[in-house]
Design a protein that fits this description.
Length: 183
């Protein structure tokens, strides 16, 4: 039987594991995206390379996120839930696409704000290009910080969407028994 304190503690650890997973997957997503840009930047149209690099990063991020979520993050899952079934994986991917769309929306909103208020287009920012042009002084560039803050907002919005949808739709906890409700 779980007490309310045990449930809160379990939820806190789950949130910590979820946040760690989100950071690791975002890092892999970003690194894969940058790797694809570096490998093909000279030979492709900027729009095409953006779509390809973003798609590659997203795919790797979703695969890693599914594995970590299924085997590490959500440890209190209803046993009737088959987390390895094709239907479950399809739902996971669809909800991940929803999270991606939320993230894109937040990033575009941030870009709109940055363009209106500061005349900065953060969507076209390439960290590698900033480093190439300014060396480590790229950290002193306003566009870097506008991009970084926007990236943080985008990532936070995606994390919140993903946690809520996965917790409520995919990785549901077992229903409480009558005995545990009475405690």
């Amino acid at each position: 039987m779980h007490t309310k304190i045990d449930k809160k503690k379990s939820l806190i650890f789950e949130l910590i594991r979820f946040a760690i997973t989100g950071v690791v997957c975002a890092l892999f997503d970003y690194l894969i995206c940058q790797l694809v840009i570096l490998l093909f930047n000279a030979s492709a149209d900027k729009w095409v390379i953006t779509v390809v690099s973003t798609t590659c990063g997203f795919i790797i991020g979703v695969i890693l996120n599914y594995i970590l979520s299924t085997y590490w993050v959500y440890q209190n899952v209803d046993k009737s839930q088959n987390t390895k079934s094709p239907l479950f994986i399809t739902k996971f991917v669809i909800l991940s696409i929803g999270g991606l769309l939320v993230s894109i929306g937040v990033m575009l909103l941030c870009n709109l704000i940055c363009e209106s208020a500061f005349s900065l287009n953060i969507v076209d920012v390439s960290i590698m290009q900033l480093i190439g042009e300014h060396g480590f002084l790229f950290l002193a560039q306003g566009i870097f910080w506008a991009y970084f803050i926007s990236f943080c907002f985008k990532t936070l919005a995606g994390l919140i969407f993903n946690y809520i949808t996965r917790k409520l739709i995919l990785y549901k906890a077992p229903k409480a028994t009558e005995e545990s409700k009475d405690e």
